[in-house]
Amino acid sequence: MLAVADPDLDNGPRTDRSATMRMCAVTREVRPIDELIRFVVAPTGEVIPDLKRKLPGRGLWVSASRRTVAEAVRRHQFSKGFKRDVRAAPSLPADTEILLIRSVAEALAMAAKAGQVVAGFAKVEGLLAQGAAQALIHASDGAADGIRKLDAIVRQKAGNIAESPDFPTVNVLTSAELDLALGRSNVIHAALLAGPASKTFLSRCQILVRYRMADDDKTEGSGQKF
C-alpha cells in the first residue's frame, strides 16, 4: 500500500497512480483497488463516487459493497475521513449503483462499436455452438425458457468454449438497459467476442456484482455467474 501521512486518504489521482492496494475506511481492511470505490468531495461539499479514479482532490476509499457504502453514510465516516463537514446523501449507496450500471452499459456499448458483441437468440446460439463466444449475456428480466436453452449449451460445451470451464454468464442489465447500450430494441440475449473492450465490460460487471452482493465474486456451480 502506498504510504501517506493520512492512511484514510490518498493524495489525489496524479500522485497515487502506482498504488494497487488501499484501506477501506469502514472495515479497515487493505484490499486491491479494484475491490474498492474511491470517493471525493465535490466543490459543493457533496461526497461523490469517483469510479474512474480521476477526479481531483484527495480521495477516501470504501469497499465496493452497497452495504459498506451505506454503513459509511450511517456512521458519518466520510466526514471523519475527510476531517471536515461533508454531505453524504442517504441516497449515496443507490446513486453509486446507478453510476456502476451506467459504467457497465457504456462498456458494453464500446464493445459493440468494436464489433465484439452479437445480439439475438439465433446468432448467440450459433456462436455458442461453434465455441466462438467469450461470454453469454442475458437480460435480467428475460424469459426463463430462452435463458435455460442457452445456458444448457454452455454447460454442454463447458470444456470447449474458450478452452475454459469458467465461461462467464452475465445478467446484470435489464432488457431496456441492453437496448440502450446496443442501440436496438428487445435485446434479451447477446454474446461477447474476444477483444479488449469485452474484457473491460466483464471487469465492470464483476465490480457491479460485488457491489450488489458483497460476496467477493463467489460463484455457484460451473462457470462464472454475474
Count of individual helical segments? 7
SS strand fraction: 15-25%
Order of helices and strands: EEEEEHHHEHEHEHEHE
Helix share, percent? 25-40%
* Spatial extent as radius of gyration: 19 Å
Could you name the ranges where pLDDT drops below 50 across 5 or more consecutive residues? 215-223
Major sheet, described briefly?
Answer: 5 strands, mixed
> Main sheet: which strands, in order across?
6-9-7-8-10
The total count of strands amounts to 10
Helix-strand category:
alpha+beta
Terminal CA distance reads 29 Å
Mean pLDDT: 89
CA-based shape: elongated
Descriptive tags:
226 residues; five-stranded mixed beta sheet; 16% strand; 38% helix; single chain; alpha+beta; 7 helices
Describe the fold and architecture:
The protein is α+β, with helices and mostly antiparallel strands and 226 residues long. 38% of the residues lie in helices and 16% in strands. It contains 7 helices and 10 strands. It has helices spanning 66-74, 77-82, 92-113, 121-130, 144-156, 175-182, 196-213, and strands at 21-23, 30-32, 36-41, 47-50, 60-63, 117-119, 135-138, 168-170, 189-192, 224-225. The chain has a 5-stranded mixed β-sheet with strand order 6-9-7-8-10, with helices on both faces. Strands 4-3-5 form a 3-stranded antiparallel β-sheet. Strands 1-2 form a two-stranded antiparallel ribbon. Helix 1 (66-74) packs antiparallel against helix 3, helix 3 (92-113) crosses helix 6 and helix 3 (92-113) runs antiparallel to helix 7. The longest helix has 22 residues, at 92-113. The protein is elongated. Mean pLDDT is 89; it is low at 215-223.
